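Here is one chain, start to finish.
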Amino acid sequence: MSTVPLTDTRLEETSVLTLDDATVSINDNDCTPDVPPSLNKPTNTSTVIGTRPCSLSAHHPGPRALLPHIIVTYDDQVQQSSTAWGRTGTAKLGYHGFAKMVFDAFILHPARAPRWEFSVFKSSDRSIFWKSYKFLQADFIARVKMRPRFATDSSGMGGRDAISLQPVGWSEMVQNLVGIDIEYKVPEDYPGREKLLNILQRSATNK
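Its structure:
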């Protein structure tokens, strides 16, 4: 009665993947190149004594680290204004919080409101200011277009995108932005427009 051995006593064929001069070359910094396993070759690799592994990052640098700020730009067709906003703070504000602060920065700031003066004959300039402010702020949030400039791996400053940023996923999108272009045109007519312009003109003259 013959028995079948538990192991095959035949010599196993072993092969070593060698560095073929026609396909692989050693770099000038004397490192061992990363040889990808072939589909029709064994995965065993040989080691060259006195060499060190090549670093992939040395040949393929990763994406650039983004600066801690975002450049926010607004062009009102008269002049272009740019300001820097902290990336972390912008993300925490949320879309609507950010929009309100952009409105204050570029369109109409509450600090421009005139002092309160009581009068029984007419509405105070301060009440006129705040009525127009609230209307314009609501209009701004509803109609503003925020055009993103997403970061790129090469230059770091991305080109202006035709899409418009939305509230959903705001904090995630901000992490990959380098700039935001604000598109908004103040309406030609709104409540208290003439009175507000007169108030602002007088305020600027008195300074």
